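worker-03 picked up job from queue 'complexes'. Input manifest follows; two sequence lines, order preserved.
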Amino acid sequence: MPGQNVRTVPVEVLVIGSGGAGLRAAIAAHDAGAQVTVLGRTLQGKAHTVMAEGGINAALGDLDPEDSWIVHAADTLKEGEFLSHPEIAERLARDAPERLFELERWGAVFDRTPDGRIMQRPFGAHTYRRTCHVGDRTGLELVQTLLAQVRKRGIDIQEEIVITSLLTSGSGSGKRAIGATAVNLKTGEFYCYLARAVVLASGGYARVYKITSSPGENFGHGPAMAYRAGAELMDMEMVQFHPTGMTWPETAMGILVTEAVRGEGGVLKNSKGERFMTRYDAKRMELSARDIVARAIYTEVKEGRGTPRGAVYLDISHKPAPFIRKKLAKMVKMMQDFQGVDITKEPMEIAPTAHYAMGGIRVEPDTAMTSLSGLFATGEVASGVHGANRLGGNSLTDLVVFGNIAGKAAAEYAKAAPAAAPDRAEIDAEYSRITTSFGRKDGISPAVVQEEVRELMWQHAAIERSAAGLEEGLAKLQALAKRAMAVSGDLRFNPGWLDYLDAGNALVVCEAILRSALMRQESRGAHMRTDFPEMRKDWKRNIICVNRGRMLLKTRPLPEIGPEVRQWMQSRNMSLQ
Amino acid sequence: MDAVQEHVTAVVRRFDPTREKTPRYVEYEVPYVKGMKVLDAVRYIQRNLDGTLAYRWNCREGICGSCAMEVDGKPVLTCKTEVRGKMLIEPMLSFPCVKDLVADVREVREKLAKLSPWLAPRPEEDAKKEFWRIKEHELHEAEEARLCIECYICYDVCHVIRNHKELPFPGPVNIVHAVGLDRHPKDSMDRSLFMHKDIWNCNMNRCCSSSCPQGIRITENFITYAKERIVEENNIVNALIRRVRNKPGPLDSWGERK
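worker-03 finished. Artifact:
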C-alpha cells in the first residue's frame, strides 16, 4: 500500500503526452487561460511525432491553385472509405491552412518554392499537391517548433512520467475524468494528478504488431486506459499497414521508408522487374492509396514475385543524386547506416509494416471530448479522422488541428468543472495493481507476453484477416491474458516494469482489434477479410467497443457529408459510398 | 565484427546512486545476430537477463535521440552503432547518473531556457497577414540547426563541460539552437550576444562537430558565427557608431544590458 506516499498534484488541465498533439493542446489550453501541466513518458522532443517524415497536408494551393479545403476533405473521406466522421474530416481540412500559418510564424522552416512560398509535394491519393514538408524530417520540425512555443509560454512540462490509469468520479452519465495516477520514472514516486479536465494525447498502438514502424512506447496505453475508465473505443480494427518498411537486417525490420520516396518519383518493381502497380491501380500507380499499395506488395510476394527476403524493390536511383540527397536526406543516411545501400545508385527492398492506428478513442467533432465527460482525446489515440485508411501527411495535420481544438475545449470545460476529491480506495487499489507482480515467483516475463502478442497479431490480424484466423488469435490472446507476469526490482526507472504495464495494456487493445475485426464482415480500406472480400454498403458504420465488465461491441451510423463537399464530389461524379 | 562469432560480450555500467556508493561493471554474453546494434544488445540484456537494467530508447532509427550512451568511452547513438566483440557500455558520463545507462540531462535545458529559444519575429514581419515569402537559400543556416535531435552527445563530449563544470558555458547544443534562431531570416533577436562572456571558454577543438550524429557543423557554422557576432558588436568603431545613434549596448551574459 502506498499509504502516505502518494503525492497529489492539483492541476487545471492535464495533458497526457508530449508529442505533437499534446504540445499543441497544451498551447491552446494555455492561450485560453488555463493552467496546464504536460506529462510525457519520454524526454521532451522524443515522442513518435519526431519520426514523421513526409509532410503535413494543408490546401494552401501554392503549387495547385485549384486546391481547396473542400477537395482536401473529399480526398480524406473518399480514401478513408467513408468511415471518417464527415464533420471531423471537414474540420481537418478547413483548419489546416491556419494551423500551418501559425507554425510558420512560430519558426517552422518548410522547404520553399522558387518564388518563396511553402513547397508542397504530391502524396498518395491526393488530388492535388498539398503536402508541406521539411525534407523527410517534417515531424522533428513540428515538435521542435511546438516545444519552443511551450517553453516560451512557460508551460509546466514534466518528462519521464508514466501514466498508469485515469481517475474518474461519479457513475452513469454523471461519470467524469478527474485526473490520472502516474509514476515518476526518475524517482519511482507514485503520483496522483487531480485535474478539472484531462487531454489524452498518448499516441497509437501499432507496436502491438511484430513488424512495425512505431516506436517502443506505442503499445496503446491510451486506448487501454480510456477503455478501462469507461470511454468508448472506435474502429479499433483499422490499422494502417504502410506499404514501404525496411526488411533487413533484423534490427531495422519495419522501420519506415517514407512515402516521399514515391512522391518524389520512386517506382515499385517486383523480382521480375515489372512495375506491378499497373495491375492494381494503373491510373495512380505508386501514388495510389496506402491500403491498395500495401495489398499489392503483399500479393506480389504471396504469389512468388517477391525477393528472397519477402520484399519488392523501391527504386529512386533514376533521379539525380543531389536531388535525392536534398529531398530524402534521412532515407539516404538510414539505408546507408543499416544496410550499406546507397539509394542514389541502388533500389531498396521493402515490405509493408504496421504504421498507424486509425482506430482509437471516439471523440466529438467540435470539442474532441470522448464519451467520458472531462476526458478529451487528440492525435493518434483518437479516432474518426482517417476512417478506414489514412492519407499520407494527414496525421501531422490531425495533431495540430485537433490538438488545438481539444486544448481549447478542455480549458473551457475546466473553467466550469468543480474540483473533485480523489477516491482514496481507488488510488490504493491502483497502486496494488501496478506493483502486484513484483517479486512473484511463478510468473512469466512481460517481455515474453509482449513478443507473443505481437507475433499472434501479425499472424492473425495483419493485412489479411479471416474469421477462423481472428478466432484463433483471440483464443491465443485470452490464454495469454490468464498467465501471471513476474517483475523484479521496483518502480524507479525499471524497463521490466514498463514492459509489464505495456503488456497489460496491449492485451486490452488487441482484444478490441480482434473483436472489431471479427465483427466487421466486409473488406474496407485497411481491413481486408478473405472470407468477405467485398465492401458492403450496410457496413458503412463505426464499430464501438465499450467496457461493461466485459468487452461489449456495437455499431454506430455515420452522419451525412456536408453540402459543400457533397456537391463537389457529385460534380466529379464520385460515389458518396 | 567477425560474422562467425556467435556471442558478443557487453560490459555494462550498473549503478543506482540512491542505493550504491560506486558503480559496478557487469559482464553479459549476448547472442550475435548479423547487423546487430549496441541498442539491440542492451535490449537483449534487459529483456532476457535482467529486466531492471535502465536505459532509454524509442525510435530505433536515429531520429529521436534518446539512446545516446558511451560505447568504449565514446558517446554515440546506440541504435546506429554496430556491436563489437567486447564492448564497454556506459551512460553519458558528463551528466549525473539517474540509474544504470540513464543520464540526467536536465541541466542542458536549464541553460537553454536562458537563451530565449524560440523564434521572435520582427514586429513588421509578425504583423503580416499572409504566409511569408522566404527563399530557400535564406534558410540554409536556420535549417542546419533544425537537424538537431537533442541527443546531447555534443554536450557530453565537450571538454569545457567535462573539465569545467563550474563555468556557465551553454554547451554546443544550446549554441546551435540560439544561433540557428538568430539566423532565421525573420528573427529579431541576437541570442549570440547573450553568450558573449561564456562562449570564449570554447577553444574550437571540434569534438562536438566530429561526434554529431546528424553531421551538424557545430564549431564551424554555429560557435564561430556567435563569436564573430560578439566581436563585431564589441568592435570599438561599431560601439562608437551605436553611441552616436544612441542605440543600447550589447547584452551582458544571460541577457542583461550593460
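worker-03 released lock.
Chain A has a mean pLDDT of 95.
The longest strand of chain A covers residues 189-200.
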